[in-house]
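Continuing the batch. This is chain 6 of the set; chains 1 through 5 are on the previous pages. Same settings as before, nothing changed between runs. Recording input and output for traceability.
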Amino acid sequence: MIKPKKSLGQNFLIDKKILQKITSLTDLENKIVLEIGPGTGNLTSYILEKNPKKFFVIEKDNELVKKLQDKFNDQLKIINDDVLKIDETKLFKNKVIVFGNLPYNISTEILSKWIVNLKDSFWFECLILMFQKEVADRIIAESNSSNYGRLSIISNWKLNIKKICDIKPEAFTPKPKIESSLLFFYPKKNFIKINNPNNLEKVTRIFFNQRRKMLKKPFNQLFNGDQKVLNKLKIDLKLRPQNLSFETYYKLAFEYENLRS
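Output for chain 6:
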């Protein structure tokens, strides 16, 4: 019996109805599939039933790697490494479908890494990921809401996001203290081009550093009061950071990049 490690944020999904729901969200037959943190292989078994062409899993825990090797033999390729240290763009030549019951303690770090490293051509077909519910709420938040912030803006830059369902703690072992949410991400066909994603990170960080304050101070910090940018984007500096739309932040990052080039 494998004991889940708190340090790795391990909560294993055991609810069969949820496992079936997750693997029925998109066609997996003859596709290349990647699962992040397969744990004891509960979801892995359901994915294999869908006959993927190739199946990769990334698992950091050495004990779990041995268990997966014994359980699945040569049905999948196990990458025994930290997902945060892997460059998926070099790992796959063709687009993959990604599943992940992400460790709560690094879930936003994983998602942010993938988004920041995205080129104009995507390495994945879709992402089917589970997050702590309060994190998922921030990811899918719209402007003018209390959950809206940097994570919402960065997540929605190049990806469409759909919430599938909330999942009760009873679906996991050990049972977490909070609910989880399942999100479905797929690439946008059109998005504002920002050459260096760090510029979007910087713009959102400075604007949301004092989210209750008006926009004047962060705008002046980034653009030195440039009236041309204000007129072009039609920004009212009396508004607050959560009042600006996704698109306005992407345009701000684009303008900031142009000023620096």
